[in-house]
Amino acid sequence: VDELHSRVAQFGSIDSAPAGPWPVVATRASRFIEKAQLFPGSTFVIGYDTAIRLIDPKYYGDCRDTMARALANLLELRCDFVVAGRVESDGTFREFAHMADKIPAGLGCLFTGLTEREFRVDLSSTEIRAERARAAGR
């Protein structure tokens, strides 16, 4: 529970009011289709690395058609994704534009990419939480 509170706190208040201008929801649903079924019409904010996995047929039994159907299900549930860039292990910054051609036809509308100019933080969320804990003396 403490870990959950600290993660939500990074977005603002954890009182009865939403954290910042948008609500933050914690769930045990592990896959986006499960989250979308619980919260239709939601926008999920994800990093480039997660977006790549979301469109990788490897995670759908190595079947591109199954992957496309899964994304179509998300679209039917009126969900979408905002994709923030990430720094790769080789130091290269990757953003949505680097993956857009891998998205099946008709499903690109599921994704809105943030450009490097719009958002770039070269720390992982794990590193940010660790730094905040150090600063707080924990």
Summarize the helices and strands and which ones pair or pack.
Layout: H1 2-9, H2 32-38, E1 43-47, H3 48-54, H4 64-76, E2 80-84, E3 86-87, E4 93-94, E5 111-113, H5 125-135
Parallel strand pairs: 1-2, 2-5
Antiparallel strand pairs: 3-4
Q: Can you count the beta strands?
A: 5
Rg is: 16 Å
Q: Give the number of helices.
A: 5
The arrangement of helices and strands along the chain is HHEHHEEEEH
**SSE-based structural type:** alpha/beta
Oligomer: single chain
Please bin the fraction of helical residues: 25-40%
State mean pLDDT (0 to 100 scale): 86
User: What are the segments in which pLDDT stays under 50 over at least 5 consecutive residues?
Assistant: none
Kindly, what is the distance between the CA atoms of the first and last residues, rounded to a whole number of angstroms?
A: 16 Å
**Main sheet properties:** 3 strands, parallel
Q: Numbering strands along the chain, what is their spatial order in the largest sheet?
A: 1-2-5
Q: What form results from the Cα inertia axes? A: globular
Proportion of beta-strand residues: 5-15%
